[in-house]
Amino acid sequence: MIKRLSITLFVLTTWYGFGQDKVTEAFAGTRVINNHSNETLPKNTLEFIIGHKFGDIAGATGGVDNFFGFDNIADVRFAFEYGIIDNLDIGIGRSKGVGARTQMLDGYAKYSILQQKTSGMPISLTFVSSFAFSYVKQSHDSTALASYPTFWNRMIFTNQLLVTRKFGNRFTWQVNFGYNHRNYVKYDQINGVYFVGTSGRLRFTKNIALLAEYNYTFNRLPTENHQDPLSFGIEITTGGHIFALHFSNAKSLNENLFIPETTSNWGKGQWRFGFTFNRRFKL
After folding, report:
1. Residue 57 CB contacts under 8 Å (≥ 6 apart), including other chains
2. Phi, psi for residue 243 in degrees, rounded to 5
3. DSSP letters of 201-270?
4. For the segment 125-173, what is each residue's pLDDT rounded down to a tens digit?
5. Averaged over 78-106, what is the pLDDT?
6. Which of 42, 37, 47 is nearest to 240 (CA)?
7. Inter-residue contact 35 to 176 (CB < 8 Å)
């Protein structure tokens, strides 16, 4: 009787342990294309990221004259990210910026609240808080966006929740929703916007996947010339490296800018090629 009971308890414990396994690698890295993914870096892991976006491929400023955008750079960014603990990481980056918002520093903290399990927990839930800061020289033109009357006028903040589910071994779907606040805007813009987005990853082979993402913003003023950022890409993973090649109407590489300030229109040929390169180090 004791032997039978011991075997039963062993089987139940083993089954429960397997049933509660975490679902890993919903995305290959901490970003999908531009959007944050639910992934956090393991403890004591450092990741270096560098990204480029070029000029319009087509439209009025594209075409062969500027070699389909390669003669122009829309944005360039490099960043370092670090895993504090297994479900919390932080990052800091520097980007050229776009439009009137240039010479940008940015940072974020990401915390994994829930993680999808093979049974019991169907989703991952992640919170991301980020900021961007322009240190460009103050303009003496009081009507210019870069006039920045106070230090805090230079700041932009974004807070968002990511809800992610991995279906099998090949497909991941994520929904993100949150709030973006620009401390200083033009007279025909609104400081705070709410947004909702979606991202997907479809893996074809062990090392190659198709990526897509879209963000929709609410409560816009009719006077704003705004377009929702839409991006497509292909991801190639090679050991500790991740390459993402993508096309997007968004010029910026940081969510504090591309969510509220994308103005390029896919329908007018105002989309561009870009890439990101990630290298991970275990410290």
Report:
1. 68, 69, 247, 269, 271, 272, 273
2. -110, 130
3. EEESSSSEEEEEEEEEE-S--TT------EEEEEEEEETTEEEEEEEES---SSHHHHHHH----GGGT-
4. 999 999 999 999 988 888 888 889 899 999 999 999 999 999 999 999 9
5. 95
6. 47
7. yes
Contact criterion met (CB below 8 Å) for 73 and 275: no
Determine contact, residues 128/160, Cβ cutoff 8 Å.
yes
Q: What is the pLDDT of residue 9?
A: 39
Beta bridge partners of 278: 49, 242
Rounded distance between C-alpha atoms, residue 58 and residue 62, angstroms: 4
Residue with tokens 């414990």: 13
Query: How many residues in the chain?
Result: 283
What single-letter DSSP state applies at residue 85? E
- Contact yes or no for 87/114 (Cβ under 8 A): no
Q: Please give the Cα distance from 165 to 170 (Å, whole number).
A: 11
Give residue 208's region: left, alpha or beta (phi > 0; psi -120 to 50): beta
CATH class for the region spanning 2-282: mainly beta
34 closest CA partner among 246, 279, 278: 246
Q: Where are the alpha helices (DSSP H) in the chain?
A: 2-19, 255-261
Amino acid 125: pLDDT: 98
Pairing between strand 192-203 and 171-182? antiparallel
pLDDT score, position 8: 46
Rounded to 5°, the CA angle 60-63-68 comes to: 120
Question: Alpha-carbon distance 150 to 215, whole Å?
Answer: 30
CA 118 – CA 19 distance, rounded (Å): 6
Alpha carbons 205 and 229: distance in angstroms, whole number? 27
